Structure formats: C-alpha cells, structure tokens
Amino acid sequence: MAGQNNNSADFALIRQRIRGKREDYKRYSFTADQNNILKTFFDLAQEFDSLADFYAICVLVLPQYMDVVCRLYISSDDGILQLVQASDGEPLSAPLPAPESHMNITEISRRGNTLLLPILLKGSTAKGGAGSGLFEVVFKRPISPQLRFFLEKFTNRIAVALSGRLASYQNVRHIEFVTNLVADIEHNIIIPNMYFRHLFNKLRKKIAEMSDLEEQIKAMKAAMGMTGNESCQHIIDKITDLHKSLTDYHQELDKHHKSSTLFIESLFRRDHFTQGQLVLRTRKCNVAREIVAPQLEQYERRLQSRGVTVEHPDDMRAEEIPLQVDVGLLSQVYANLFSNALKYTETVDVDGSGRQRKALAYGREYVRDCFGAGRDAIKFNVFTTGRHISPADADRIFDEGYRGTNVRGEMGHGHGLSFIKQVVEIHGGWVGYEPVLHGNNFWFCLPLPDDEAAPEPEAADS
C-alpha cells in the first residue's frame, strides 16, 4: 500500500501509478499557461524557505498569468480561520480574521465572481477545522469548468506543499525544544543530583559518629561499674538499634542513588539528542560484577516478597572475559529483564509430583562462530518459570509498544524489550526469546573482543 514504511520499494505499484498519472495528465488537457503555473509554483516553493514567502507564492503565481485576485486562509492551532496573505494590497505582516462567511466551508463553493476552494492539510482530521485552510480566487469574468478543475488541482498542490513545510517546521521546533530540554536536564537534574553524593557522605560520617558514641557509652558504663544497670543497657540497645537502622537505610539509599544516577546520566546524554539515536560510551568491564550484581540487588528483595527464588549461577564470574560495553545502558537491559521477571514469573509443577518451582535464574555461556566464522560471542540468559509465551506474541514481543496477551493487568507500555533490543544491537549483538523447560528464557549475545575466543568446552567426565 502506498505510504507504507517498507525497506524495499514496490516497483509494480509505482509503475502502475506512473501510468495512471500519465493518462490523467492527458485527460486534464491543461493549457500551456496552466502547466507553466504549476511548474512556477513548484520551482519557487523549493527555492524559498520561509513560511511567509511560501504564503506569498501561493497568492502571487496565478495573478501573474491571469486577471485574478488570490487570498490564502489557514486555520490557527485553535481552529480559527485567518487570512495569512493576499495578492491585492500590501503584504500582510500578521494574520487577519477571516470573514464570517468563509467559516466552515467544506466543499468548493462559488459565490458570484469568487471561488472558494477548501484546503485539507495532510494529517488534519476534519475539514474546516484546525490544520485546514481556504484558497480564495476572485475573477473579473466568468470561468469555464476546465479552469475551475485546474484551480482545484492547483489548490491540491498548495495543500501538499504546505503540509510538508509545516511538518518540517514542526520537526525543527521539536529538535530545538529537545536540545534545550537536554541542557535543562543537565543543568537542573544531573548536576544537582551530584549534591546527593555529598549529603550521603555527610550522613555516613554522622552514622560513624553515632557508632563512636555507642562505644563511648559502653566504655563509660563499664568504667562507672554500671554493668548490671538495666536502664543504661536499654539506652545502649536503643542506640545500637538506631545505628543499625540508619546504616541499613543509608546503604539502601546509596545503592538506589547510584543506580538512578547511572540511568539518568546514560539516558540523558547530550550526544543521544544531537545525533538522534543512542550513542555508546563504552569501557572494559566485568559484566557479572559491575552490571548484573548491582541490578539484581535492586530487585532481589522484591522478587523474594513475591515468592520468586533467585537461582545464582556457579560460574557467572568464573573465567569472565571483560567486555567493552556501555555500563549505563547495559545495566538498564538487566533492569528491564529483572523488572519483567518480577511481574511475570509464575509457579510451575516441576515433575508432576506436586513439587513446585517459582524462580528466576541467570547466567552466561560462550557461543562459537555466533557472528560468523571465527567471531565468537557470549550469550547472556535470564530465565523465569511460567507458561510459555504464545508463538504469536513471541514473534512481536521485541516490537515497540507491543504487549503480550499474558500481561494480566500488570502495568507497562511495551517499551522495555524494544529498548533492550536497541541497546544490544548498537553493541553489535543480537536478542532473542526461547521457550524452555519450565519457563521462558530471554537472551542476548554480545561479540567477544577480537583478541579473545570462546574457551574450549570441558571434556566430559569418564
């Protein structure tokens, strides 16, 4: 279908449309001047950039070829029709209200020696409303049906050209807004967020002072021979409990702050917005220790509260080959996978005997020739127990905005897995899903460094 965003062109359809247009133009039988009007409009619309100049072109081309007056009306953002330019009189520097008689015209209308032709801009949802307009042509003598038909086609050219121009201007405004927003985020969020680190350090010092005070009270109690004093011991116990609670809260806050800071700084990089895509900042790291462990720590308590057992691999950190990755973005890959595990892990009957399992497991394995001969990879897995995802859902589960039929009312926007796919692919990797025994496995493969190769598999025990 015309307009679809496919990777390959539909030659058959395009040839058919070209032949149709060729026959249409034969049937139109436009005069030489009418063809020149269309060509002049097209050439000048490409030559001049500003919207004011484009409005002027719309109303000035026809009067150069025929004895007419032209006026162009465009609806404002709130749907009010306004005169934006006219060929008679001085150029308008600001829009003027349209006559009441011109409002809500949805069909070509003839009023005496005036022809009113509605303009429906591309993307507009209703004629006569916001995103539409009106082209007025005033004649000094009667017009033929052929000229009326030509003016209808000319107005269509205005609508198409104006739609593209307005969309382009809107895109420029969006880019300018996003650019300014990034600067605001950097100034008002990222930099002030660094101050929390200072506050955490001060809190840690105060907790340390409380610990010293606790020891001093204990020493004072012993020195004053108050070993059996219950009131004194009660105060010491309260201070000890308070110290432990503050230490736990500090550690929890510190971990969440580090994770949030990592995500903020990796998502709101200026490079992402200036280049219009995610831009990597890679460094060599140990994925298990620097990425998986901190993210799992964020979710482990919540997983346990839902009855999900975390099954840690024996060899995740053993013989780990450091990879050159973007730590912030890859951390969010695991955060999304663990978040999905929290929502969708189910209890399964392991062997039909009633023994149940509700678990998350993760790990990695080496894959030889994953990206071609001699191009090995590490495959990272996150497994959860539960019913298999349906084949129909599995085919689309990494698509932006898609949510499977198994969501069961869980909150979400269908963005997490699409984000994972994007991050992994800009690392040069692949993502995938596979149904396995007792549940579902989401995986991604990342290429090993050029100077590394997957270890030889260990020989089986004899």
Q: Keywords for this structure?
A:
462 residues; six-stranded antiparallel sheet; 10 helices; single chain; alpha+beta; 3 domains; Heat Shock Protein 90; five-stranded mixed sheet; Beta-Lactamase; 15 strands
How are the elements arranged and paired?
Blueprint: H1 11-28, H2 32-47, H3 51-65, E1 68-75, E2 81-86, E3 96-97, E4 109-111, E5 114-120, E6 132-139, H4 145-223, H5 230-267, H6 270-275, E7 283-285, H7 287-305, E8 309-311, E9 323-325, H8 327-344, E10 348-349, E11 356-357, E12 359-367, E13 377-385, H9 391-396, H10 416-426, E14 430-436, E15 439-447
Parallel strand pairs: 8-12
Antiparallel strand pairs: 1-2, 1-6, 2-3, 4-5, 5-6, 7-9, 10-11, 12-13, 13-15, 14-15
Helix pairs in contact: 2-3, 2-4, 4-5, 5-8, 7-8, 8-10
